[in-house]
Design a protein that fits this description.
Blueprint lengths: L4 E6 L4 E8 L3 E9 L1 H4 L7 H22 L9 E7 L3 H18 L3 E5 H15 L9 E6 L4 E8 L9 E9 L4 H11 L6 H9 L30 E3 L2 H13 L3 H12 L6 H5 L4 H28 L4 E5 L6 H13 L3 E3 L3 H4 L4 H13 L18
Parallel strand pairs: 1-4, 4-5, 6-10, 8-9, 10-11
Antiparallel strand pairs: 1-2, 2-3, 6-7, 7-8
The protein binds 5'-O-[(R)-(carboxyoxy)(hydroxy)phosphoryl]adenosine and zinc ion (ZN).
The site of zinc ion (ZN) has 5 residues, from α4.
Length: 385
């Protein structure tokens, strides 16, 4: 079959991204314009500002992705765009632009679920390495700033190709996503935004056993309640640990140092690790390391429990938090002990990007699964059933 070039567009949160992927397995370009500097002063993503920045960035980002792939508007075979989930206004920029492009170029348009995109980030890179065999079912943990979801994936019956998968949601957070906890704790400690990467690096300098966090307990009546078909559902919860960190900061009179640190870092948009370390005492580093250990323990423990429960043979760990070094090391070690194969995307493909959107669109292209011209962005678009 001839090569298929798909232009992917992603604008669900605070990254304006475009990429060209050839036949679902060769990344020809991958351009990501981060809005980090816009949101950093607020310690989190401001939805209105995100939409404005997407509007500014989308045309040059798409142009660059085409140029780097040595493609043109005319030469690509299809356009893929993130339909949701994400910020409504941000999604709308990508969807409207992709629709206009597809209409004017008379090219097929493919709507992609952002979460399926994260799963395809793993598949794209594995296919690129020549690995096309994954023992099913695959259990995928999508862990990011907006999600902490577990999906059981299987190959679609009568699929036109081996990468048409079905998904069943078998676990999710009851409150905050894990990445959200990282970002909120970093904001609380005056460490800037986004919190994940800096906490990841600082944690190596603290004692992770110094502060004891009680593992998240959800005592609600539906904890591990059977899902509609009688199977258990895995609950995550990360809002409790964020409150526990806040309480620790208050009880240990750390508030003033956190505010001072935040003030100093506000004047330094790209601080080095040394800059931040110089502003952190031992107590703060121990707290950061203990927080990370508690989150990683929870993610690894519950995912492995789910793998056993659902007889999964393969693990995919993906989404922004999958970039975390401790999470990767722990999964590799513990999944290996249990005879499970575990796959991660490379770090650049763990966080939001459009290559994963173009890759997820390829099986849909082969199946002729194109978007209705009337389709719209969906902020809470679910994946699977
Ligand atoms: O997938 P992503 O780019 O966007 C969403 O779909 O949410 O994930 C962003 C999230 C942020 O919460 C960020 O703090 C977190 O991923 N993150 C990390 C790391 N790098 C990014 N969390 C922990 N460790 C990291 N190294
Ligand atoms: Zn994401």
């Amino acid at each position: 079959m001839a090569d298929v070039f798909i232009l992917g567009i992603e604008s669900s949160c605070d990254e304006t991204a475009a990429a060209v992927v050839r036949s679902g397995e060769h990344m020809e370009s991958n351009v990501v314009l981060s809005q980090f500097a816009t949101h950093q002063p607020y310690g989190g993503v401001v939805p209105e500002l995100a939409s404005r920045e997407h509007l500014r960035g989308i045309v040059p980002v798409v142009r660059r992705a085409l140029e780097e792939a040595r493609q043109s508007y005319k030469s690509i075979d299809a356009i893929a765009v993130t339909q949701g989930p994400g910020l409504a206004g941000a999604l709308l920029v990508g969807v409207t632009y992709a629709k206009a492009l597809a209409f004017s170029l008379e090219k097929p348009l493919i709507a992609v679920n952002h979460l399926e995109g994260h799963i395809h980030a793993v598949l794209l890179e594995e296919r690129q390495r020549g690995n096309r065999d994954f023992p099913f079912p695959v259990l995928a943990l999508v862990v990011s700033g907006g999600h902490t979801h577990l999906y059981l994936a299987n190959q679609k019956a009568h699929a036109t190709n081996s990468f048409s998968w079905t998904y069943k949601n078998v676990g999710r957070t009851r409150d905050d996503a894990a990445g959200e906890a990282y970002d909120k704790v970093a904001k609380l400690l005056g460490l800037g935004y986004p919190g994940g990467p800096i906490i990841d690096r600082l944690a190596k300098h603290g004692n992770s056993k110094a502060v004891k966090f009680i593992p998240a307990q959800i005592k609600g009546k539906d904890r591990n309640a059977p899902a509609h078909d009688g199977e258990a559902f895995i609950d995550f919860s990360f809002s409790g640990i964020k409150t526990a960190v806040l309480r620790y900061v208050e009880l240990n009179d750390m508030k003033k140092t956190c505010e001072d640190r935040q003030g100093k870092l506000a004047h330094n948009p790209k601080p080095s690790l040394e800059d931040v370390l110089a502003l952190c005492d031992k107590k703060t580093l121990d707290l950061v390391a203990s927080f990370q250990r508690a989150v990683v323990d929870d993610l690894v423990g519950k995912t492995l429990k789910a793998a056993e429960q659902f007889n999964a043979s393969t693990l995919f760990i993906t989404g922004g938090v999958a970039a975390n070094s401790e999470l990767r090391a722990r999964f590799e070690q513990q999944a290996g002990q249990e005879g499970l194969r575990v796959y991660f995307p490379s770090r650049p493909l763990s966080t939001d990007n459009a290559a994963m959107i173009a890759a997820a669109a390829y099986p849909k292209f082969l199946a002729g699964d194109f978007a209705d011209p009337e389709f719209s962005a969906e902020a809470s678009l679910p994946l699977g059933r």
